[in-house]
Amino acid sequence: MMIKLRHILCPVDFSTYSDHAMCYAAALAGKFGAELTLLHVVAPVVAALPGEAALQDMVQVRSEEIEAACRERLEKTVGDLTAQGLQVQCRVLNGVPYLEIIRFARDSGTDLIVLGTHGRTGITQLLIGSVAERVVRKAPCPVLTVKNPEHDFVMP
User: Fold this and answer.
1) What are the angstrom distances between the C-alpha of 38 and each of 61, 79, 80, 113?
2) Torsion sign across C-alpha atoms 115, 116, 117, 118
3) Strand 112-117 relative to strand 143-147: parallel, antiparallel, unpaired?
4) Is 1 within the bounds of a domain?
5) Residue 57's domain is classified under what CATH number?
6) Per residue, what are the HEC states of 18-56?
7) DSSP summary character for residue 151
């Protein structure tokens, strides 16, 4: 069986974990001559303000500022990767991260998703949940999860 990767999706949250995963995604894109998309999802901002109108106005302005800052940061990374000869694009979406990642992968014909894991366990994992875990369970394509080396398991 021959594996062809034409489009690789790498969701980023600007953490060291997603930076590490981006290295894998870039290496795979280079090896397979695939297009690489860096995707950041801006999660909804929830604020408790009196009146629904005030909440809508604040969320819209705040979301636009956050989206612009994220796009600027992604475009710098795209420039760095393009200089290495890779075909890279960036996207910034608004919504629930795991849902938007899955939707984008499905709609864009993604062949592989490469994303970092934070390595949460215990009560933190239970309360916060895991974007990576949800993406792995529901993605329309294979998913490579990349854990940060500092979370390596040491055998007793």
Assistant:
1) 24, 12, 12, 10
2) negative
3) parallel
4) no
5) 3.40.50.620
6) HHHHHHHHHHHHHHHCCEEEEEEEECCCCCCCCCHHHHH
7) G
For tokens 């995963």, name the residue.
21
**Domain annotation covers residue 142:** yes
What are the φ/ψ torsions at residue 115 (nearest 5 degrees)? -140, 150
Per-residue pLDDT of the chain (156 residues; tens, 9 = 90+): 888 999 999 999 998 888 999 999 999 999 999 999 999 999 876 555 555 555 555 555 567 788 888 899 999 889 889 999 999 999 999 999 999 999 999 999 999 999 998 755 544 444 445 888 899 999 999 999 998 766 555 556
Encoded tokens for 3 = 């594996």
Helix runs in the chain, H state only: 16-32, 52-82, 97-108, 122-128, 131-138
Domain total for the chain? Answer: 1
80 located within any domain: yes
Type of residue at 15: S
What residues contact 61, with CB distance under 8 A and at least 6 apart? none
Domain hosting residue 127, numbered range: 7-149
Q: What angle do CA 124, 125, 129 make, to 5 degrees?
A: 120
